[in-house]
Amino acid sequence: MKKKKLLFLVLVISIVTSITFILDAFNASSDLINVTFKNKIFVWILTIILLVYYRRSNSNPQLVPSVLSSDKMSNKEKSKPDVSFKDVAGLEEIKDELQETIDFINNSSKYTKMGAHIPKGILFYGPPGTGKTLLAKAVAGETNSNFHYASGSEFVEKYVGVGAKRVRTLFEKAKKDTPSIIFIDEIDAIGTKRNLESNNEKDQTLNQLLVEMDGFNTDDTVVVIGATNRLDLLDEALLRPGRFDRHIYIGNPNMNARQQILEVHTRNKPLDKSMNIKDIAKKTHGLSGAELANIANEAAIIAVRNKETKLTLKHFDLAIERVVAGLEVKNPTVLLKEKKTVSIHEAGHAIVCKILNVDMVQKISIVPRGHALGYVLKFPEEDRYLLSEQELMNKISGLLAGRAAENLVFKEVTTGAKDDLDKATNIAREMVCAYGMSGLGLMAVDEHYIKYNYDIVRNEIKQILDKGYQRATKIIKENHELLHHISNVLMEKETIDSDELKRIFDLYETPIDCAT
Ligand code: ATP
């Protein structure tokens, strides 16, 4: 840094001197008249050289010692975590799988005597918030190892060589205080396939990581755990035996796991006797561990806000709504006409979902939350791993029912269906490209095929969406009295819970499912 400041100072002096020489050339009485023309030329050339050198130094990594020397790598996360396996709920088979690594770290001599060496790299992959970091910390906690945390994005720098240096430093530190766990979160930030995205800095960082993983001694008790949401993006070299060769998928928790996670996160909270954690687990299908932890925390905050001393189901219901649908907008300024449109839109969703049995409708609301003006809160009755073609079509009809109801009642449509269209299109695209459920028949459609046959694929997706929309329209048409009834109650009360919805449905003779 000092060197750069000095350079800047010299440059400023020489620029000022050069300008003075130029100005003095027009001033005959100047004191500088004695300076020879040769010297003036020398100063001007020197100024130009300094200027060029200074400009280059700003873009040349070799001359940016401040960046290289700053060890931005998070020293924040070198610690001995006090997390153990009992804090990680519902991932029993994964904990079993990791037992061997833990035993290896705790009793390394037993293995080295047999000539075995420690598994170097473990890769956790899966959706966000499912406990990958927590699990890595628990491995460190179970083995009393030092935990070195780094996020892949911390290695990404514009200066060539900086990321590689950081990788080197991280591994040096970890090797100094063994046993240790290096945890690299978002490893895809540095580990993407090299041919996909050629970037000199990134390639160097990845190469350094590969070199470091190869460079362990067999008696180094260092385990590297990587985490990513996108295993498919990672470079083959990173995944080959000897590097991250153990891949463990961590997905969203099932019903039992959700119950266990909620139990972990409510163990220090005063629960009312009437509370049954299983009831909450049933209502939180598809949510991650992080979201469940958030719900437990939000429920406690709501109870405090209401000046109550025990947590009840009511607090959890409000917390689920807060987490799933977003923050309630206080004093919304929605026009009456818009409110009516939203009530018809949401009533349309509710009717089609209920008639086609798409999940359990928990609540319909036209109270704006997050960026939504209204919503239908619904969860599947049980965890499902296989869905039939008909069930997927029903989902699409349920999603497009809001738009269909608006169109039927107002003869015009609004922007309110944006999110529904996204979701419905995603399902239809998967049906065509991944599940072989379209006119294209039994084939997996890859990016290459789509690129050259876009119109064909688009047409198939459109046909599915049109079919789903037509069915939704038919159901709403046949049940239009029910639609208006629900909409009117929503206009009056703003929300309808599952019991009230059932009562309204019961007033009508078997609502009609218009199977096509
Ligand atoms: P990301 O991919 O976004 O980095 P992640 O998979 O690393 O997410 P974590 O950071 O481990 O997720 O989880 C966030 C929080 O969620 C944890 O601190 C914990 O409170 C809670 N959590 C997630 N999974 C579990 C679980 N299985 N048991 C207990 N708590 C969990």
Short description:
Helices cover 55% and strands 9% of the residues. The protein is α/β, with parallel strands linked by helices and 516 residues long. α1 (2-24) runs antiparallel to α2 and α13 (289-305) crosses α14.
How would the blueprint of this fold be written?
Blueprint: H1 2-24, H2 37-59, H3 65-69, E1 78-79, H4 92-106, H5 108-113, E2 121-125, H6 132-143, E3 146-151, H7 162-176, E4 180-185, H8 188-191, H9 200-214, E5 222-228, H10 236-239, E6 244-249, H11 255-266, H12 277-282, H13 289-305, H14 313-325, H15 336-355, E7 360-365, E8 375-379, H16 389-410, H17 418-433, H18 447-452, H19 454-478, H20 480-493, E9 495-497, H21 498-507
Parallel strand pairs: 2-5, 2-6, 3-4, 4-5
Antiparallel strand pairs: 1-3, 7-8, 7-9
Helix pairs in contact: 1-2, 4-6, 7-9, 11-13, 13-14, 15-16, 15-20, 16-17, 16-19, 17-19
The structure holds adenosine-5'-triphosphate (ATP).
Residues 88-91, 128-134, 185, 227, 229, 261, 264, 289-290, 293 line the site of adenosine-5'-triphosphate (ATP).
